[in-house]
Design goal:
It is a single chain. By secondary structure, the chain is an alpha/beta fold. The protein contains 12 helices and 10 strands. Strand 7, helix 3 and strand 8 form a beta-alpha-beta unit.
Length: 390
């Protein structure tokens, strides 16, 4: 049963779920860098635009800025409700807001949509040279390219040094890159469910997802944006595969077991509950994301190696000077705690390895907001100065 088609019988999703010019801007702001951005793999990206959102006010001395970096299918909308311009509520809504760990009364919180993303930043769905959408011609990116673009945003905002850089999973890769490549600009660092380099297994899982997208007959080499029908089946399959790795086997067993979906009979072509669950998440992603961005960002994650060209991982981690907390999720099978233990052991300023207690697997860093907030509180004491509203 094609769940995506079943959920959208009246009208299929558009070719892409990317934000486009003319769509409601929501809370987005934009930073544009008109000069070419040199890329690590060679070549350059002519002109870069980064969508971002902010909460709070920057202190006169710019000492209260916090950089929040999202994971693969996240965006700049860290906090706030769904609405025009924002198809989903804030993905870390419990972390940013009055009385919360990142209180806008005290901290100036900045969340960019990653370079290569699809919610307002330059990516495959954006117009390229000549006005045609980049599509499959979008260049190969690495975390170093993405952080270089984010550093341009920081410069434009007048932020020389972040009080804290925080990220999980793909966001943690970029947070680590900030601390290694720009140690003087990273005051404190919180790394969640991430790694010093992508493992063979992580590359393998991502590679299967990329193959699913590229095997869709509507992929068209990445040039599907103007066709009216994108690679929905391929992107939906990629999301199903990914979501299994994001959760833990015990959680799936407890939540779904072998139960059928409603009155459906799996022996007669019906679905099990767990299949319906995966189909639901696939359909949601197809409606809000771009397959080209999924490919570009997954390839960037596969390229992640903080020690590349720096004498290896150990030498690179020794560059970190920020006060650091490293946390893993005990039930994470995609980014197991051993990877975070390597980070904690290699960063001299890290305060050991913390474990987030969660049955939810890799997604625990997004779900267990109270535990993440406690870690933020260790790095950003509530008594530390920040601007007060009058």
């Amino acid at each position: 049963m094609n769940t995506i088609l079943t959920l959208h019988q009246e009208s299929l999703p558009p070719a892409t779920g990317a934000w486009r010019e003319g769509d409601p801007p929501g809370r987005r702001q934009w930073y544009s860098h008109e000069t070419p951005l040199p890329l690590e793999a060679g070549g350059e990206l002519p002109g870069v635009r980064i969508a971002f959102e902010t909460w709070g006010r920057l202190a006169p001395d710019a000492s209260n800025a916090v950089l929040v970096l999202h994971a693969l299918t996240g965006d700049s909308h860290v906090a706030g409700p769904a609405g025009p311009g924002h198809p989903t509520p804030g993905w870390w809504d419990g972390l940013v807001g009055p009385g919360r760990a990142l209180d806008p009364e005290r901290w100036f919180v900045v969340a960019p949509n990653v370079l290569g993303g699809c919610q307002g930043s330059t990516g495959p769905s954006s117009p390229g040279p000549g006005g045609r959408r980049w599509g499959g011609d979008f260049p190969f990116l690495t975390q170093r390219d993405q952080v270089a673009a984010e550093a341009g945003l920081a410069d434009a905002l007048g932020i020389e040094r972040w009080a804290l850089v925080i990220g999980g999973s793909m966001g943690g890769m970029r947070a680590l890159e900030w601390a290694v490549s720009r140690p003087g600009r990273t005051g404190a660092l919180l790394l969640l469910a991430t790694a010093a380099s992508a493992s063979a297994e992580q590359i393998a899982w991502a590679g299967i997802q990329l193959h699913a997208i590229r095997s869709d007959r509507n992929w068209l080499g990445g040039h599907y944006h103007e066709t009216g029908g994108g690679p929905h089946a391929g992107l939906g399959l990629a999301r199903r595969i990914a979501h299994v790795t994001y959760r833990s086997e015990p959680e799936l067993h407890v939540r779904f077991g072998r139960e059928p979906q409603g009155a459906e009979d799996p022996w007669s072509g019906g679905r099990y509950q767990v299949e319906s669950y995966l189909g639901h998440h696939a359909a949601k992603l197809v409606n809000r994301f771009d397959a080209g961005s999924y490919v570009v960002l997954s390839e960037a994650m596969n390229s992640h190696d903080i020690g590349r060209g720096r004498g290896g991982v150990r030498a690179a981690l020794r560059r970190v000077t920020a006060r650091t907390l490293v946390a893993g999720v005990g039930s994470d099978r995609l980014y197991p705690p051993a990877q975070q233990a390597e980070l904690a052991a290699g960063i001299s300023t890290a305060d050991g390895l913390r474990l987030i207690d969660s049955p939810h697997g890799h997604d625990g860093f997004l779900i267990e907001v109270e535990q993440v907030a406690a870690l933020v509180g260790e790095l950003l004491p509530r008594t530390e100065a920040g601007p007060k509203r009058t």
